[in-house]
Specification:
The complex is a heterodimer of chains A (181) and B (216). With 181 residues, chain A is mainly alpha-helical. Chain A contains 7 helices and no strands. Chain A has helices at residues 3-20, 23-43, 48-64, 76-93, 113-131, 135-145, 164-180. The longest helix of chain A is centred in the first third of the chain and has 21 residues, at 23-43. Chain A is globular. Chain B has 216 residues and is α+β, with helices and mostly antiparallel strands. Chain B has a single domain (1-83, 92-216), classed as Jelly Rolls (Sandwich), CATH 2.60.120.10. Chain B contains 6 helices and 11 strands. In chain B, 43% of the residues are buried. Chain B is elongated, with a radius of gyration of 20 Å. Classes of the chains: A mainly alpha (181), B alpha+beta (216). At the A-B interface, helix 2, helix 3, helix 4, helix 5 and helix 6 of A face helix 1, helix 2, helix 3, helix 4 and helix 5 of B.
């Protein structure tokens, strides 16, 4: 099975959790992502024991918030990353995390399967582009995301090959604004 | 949607996505993103970078009973039901800012800091500070440099400085090299959300005294 079809499957697991409280789908998602969430937290300086506890909370949050997942805005790995990051800030820094105002994405603007598929493919391409970066640059970006760099140490020029996902989400936002006006 | 000409830098969006910004900066970023679809889309892209890194940066085995413990957590707490979207209230304060103010513009406890300028410091962690500033139309903020980074987001009115004009939704990112003197445009009072990770350095002696007294 190719990597991209694997990523599409995670969307099916999220939908099965959302629609049927499907524990077997959750177990598959857990098998893939729990060790990655734990790895991410430990790379960020959290002890193994604490990381395990935190991973359980992150994964439980996925179950509880499965209905809020929107595949046209984020891939499953992106969504899980944001949940894990917020939990990490909460736990390590004991801070509130101000989040942008929600957009009123109502049922009438629910993402089309084509949009979800396209975003998953864009995310796949981003992964390939990241993997193709020079080692030194990739390491710097990893250090930024694993919390080893302060905001002033993050390079002003990231050199990241960005723009594709932004353009796609921007179009979706424009459509949403248009439908509301 | 208002036309926004001055946006967040990649550096700030990556810091926000990685979770390494001080809380005060997070508030300014979240408030700007609430107003700016361009930066909202860029934010999602930086989150996607985080997702890819988490997905590929290696795994740590979880214990055998980790899934069972997670299912127990799930059983112990109910599914969160998404609250109905709040009715769109016409406000110059987006939701994250309202959270920190504890209400809308009329809930702000302004303190005069001289020259007709008022401020209200919002409570965040102490790595950086964030304040609302109200500058009467036509008034200049004393020219100042910065020990670190200063973010200024316009919520109402507009100001000009040596670099450009900044209107509602625009954000100015000033670094330690920049010395500038913002002047509020005629019209509405200029209301800004401003965060710094170091004290400002005012050029004149009177502003420096005011700085000691008022803690800006």
């Amino acid at each position: 099975m190719s990597e991209s079809s694997t990523r599409m499957d995670w969307i099916a697991e999220i939908e099965a959790i959302r629609d049927h409280q499907d524990e077997r789908a959750f177990a598959r998602l857990f098998g893939h992502f729990a060790p990655r969430v734990k790895g991410f937290l430990m790379k960020s300086g959290v002890s193994a024991e604490f990381a395990e506890e935190c991973t359980q909370e992150v994964m439980a949050t996925l179950w509880r918030k499965a209905h809020m997942f929107d595949g046209s805005k984020a891939s499953v790995s992106t969504w899980i990353f944001t949940v894990a990051r917020n939990r990490k800030i909460d736990m390590l820094r004991k801070q509130r995390r101000p989040e942008p105002e929600d957009l009123p994405w109502g049922p009438e603007t629910e993402a089309s399967p084509a949009d979800v598929m396209a975003l998953a493919q864009d995310t796949e391409l981003l992964g390939q582009a990241l993997a193709a970066l020079p080692e030194k640059q990739r390491v710097l970006i990893e250090r930024a995301y694993f919390g080893e760099l302060t905001h002033s140490e993050i390079a002003a020029e990231t050199g990241l090959p960005l723009g594709t996902i932004k353009s796609r989400i921007r179009l979706a936002l424009d459509r949403l604004r248009h439908s509301m006006s | 949607m208002k036309s926004i000409n001055h946006h967040l830098t990649d550096q700030l969006l990556m810091g926000y996505s990685a979770g390494s910004l001080p809380e005060a900066f997070n508030l300014v970023v979240a408030t700007h993103v609430s107003l700016c679809d361009e930066c909202r889309a860029r934010m999602h892209e930086f989150d996607a970078v985080g997702g890819v890194l988490m997905d590929e940066a290696g795994i740590e085995a979880v214990s055998d009973d980790c899934l069972a413990a997670t299912m127990a957590l799930i059983a112990a707490a109910p599914v969160e039901v998404k609250p109905a979207p709040a009715p769109a209230v016409s406000s110059i304060f987006p939701a994250p800012l309202q959270d920190y103010v504890g209400g809308d513009l009329d809930a702000v406890e302004w303190r005069r800091i001289g020259g007709g300028v008022s401020q209200a410091i919002l409570q965040t962690s102490d790595e950086a500070t964030v304040r609302l500033l109200r500058i009467p139309a036509g008034v200049a903020v004393p020219d100042h440099g910065h020990g670190g980074m200063e973010l200024t987001l316009v919520l109402q009115g507009a100001f000009r400085d040596e670099t450009d004009r900044f209107g509602p939704g625009d954000i100015e990112v000033a670094n330690e090299e920049m010395v500038h003197q913002p002047v509020a445009e005629a019209g509405l009072d200029c209301i800004c959300l401003s965060a710094t990770d170091a004290p400002l350095r005012f050029s004149g002696i009177l502003p420096r005294m005011a700085q000691r007294v008022f803690g800006i």
